[in-house]
Amino acid sequence: MPANLTPQYLEAELKFKQAKTTPEKIKSLEVMMAVIPKHKGTERLRGQLKSRMAKLKEELQKRPTIGRTEQAYHIKREGAAQVVLLGIPNSGKSCLLSQITNASSEVADYPFTTQKPIPGMMKFENLQIQFVDTPPVQMDHLEPGFSNLVRNADGLLLLVDLTDDPAFQMDVLLEELNRMRIKAVGKGPIPSMEVGWVSLRTLLVGNKCDVKNAMGAYQKIENRFKSAFPLLPISAKERMNLDELKKEIYQLLDIIRVYTKVPGKEPDRTEPVILKKGGTVEDVALSIHKDFLAKLRYAKIWGSGKFDGQMVKKDFLVNEGDVIELHL
Ligand SMILES: Nc1nc2c(ncn2[C@@H]2O[C@H](COP(=O)(O)OP(=O)(O)O)[C@@H](O)[C@H]2O)c(=O)[nH]1
Ligand SMILES: [Mg+2]
């Protein structure tokens, strides 16, 4: 039986298809449901509209309405550090996130699939690093939430697609960072920043190295950027070089792991204390409990000391892998 849909219905349907937000969709769907001819021929369609409406209303309830976009861009930092993934659409960000973290961000071979930042945790040895997949940046409009997200991160992973003019993609990304007043810094000392600017440790990653000729393209960007950033080729899809990537990310972050112990016992190597490079015994105490700092008299150290178990003061610099016994 033909449905005989009216022009009024078709118009509402068109609006529904073009609607970008859930409330807009609900509004058009309401019209569709109101004007749809009610006879046997539209029975199935009416059923579909009804269930679609139920889904949309459910969606609306799940999300808070006030400051929704701002809120979506606020990703609570978890683990040892937060690294933001930045790349033009289709570079493979979502694919990478789903390969190296516990999160699954939607992967598709058409752009603009990821609409809000998605966090995921990556395990590296005995610690966890948080990754955030970002939605595409609109050239004509910069979400304040977006630039805050990137500016507040501990590290940045620039992902370029080696099969699609990576040098051009880098120009686009560096221009975006410029607009957000972010200076991408590779290895070496952090330069002093102008007011309003922030610096961010940055790793450059060429993706899709599994594709023919991709390594030729990689060599070109390597030549251009190797003095500025640490860089490496990977294939997110084929899982190539991902262990190396994890190591590079850890090294990028300027963090160290130390372990605490109590007298007469072995340290717990599964629970590192994470510090910034240049951290001291005092920082170790502070990271455990703020009361420890005031009570701390001295520490014993295994690793960076002249000998194992050396007694050191509060301002003693600690290094990766040190074991520390705090004496209160
Ligand atoms: N050959 C190849 N394709 C990849 C690789 N990584 C991602 N892709 C494909 O590239 C397309 C875009 O990936 P996606 O992760 O959605 O990109 P995003 O827009 O940056 O999030 C998808 O079709 C992926 O399957 C890779 O390492 N090699
Ligand atoms: Mg994506």
List keywords for this structure.
seven-stranded mixed β-sheet; alpha/beta; binds guanosine-5'-diphosphate; Ubiquitin-like (UB roll); 328 residues; 11 helices; Rossmann fold
Order of helices and strands: HHHHEHEEHEHEEHEHEEHHEEE
Any low-confidence stretches, pLDDT <50, length ≥5? none
Task: Work out the oligomeric state of the chains in this entry.
Answer: single chain
List the ions, cofactors and other small molecules found in this model. Answer: guanosine-5'-diphosphate, magnesium ion
Distance between the termini: 85 Å
Q: In the CATH hierarchy, what is the architecture of the largest domain at level 2?
A: 3-Layer(aba) Sandwich
Instruction: Tell me the CATH superfamily of the largest domain.
Output: P-loop containing nucleotide triphosphate hydrolases
**How many beta-strand segments?**
12
Q: Which strand-content bin applies to the residues? A: 15-25%
Domain count: the total is 3
Q: Evaluate the radius of gyration.
A: 26 Å
Number of helices: 11
CATH class assignment of the largest domain: Alpha Beta
Q: Name the structural class.
A: alpha/beta
Say what the CATH topology of the largest domain is.
Answer: Rossmann fold
Main β-sheet description: 7 strands, mixed
The best one-word shape is elongated
The averaged pLDDT comes out at: 89
Task: Please bin the fraction of helical residues.
Answer: 25-40%
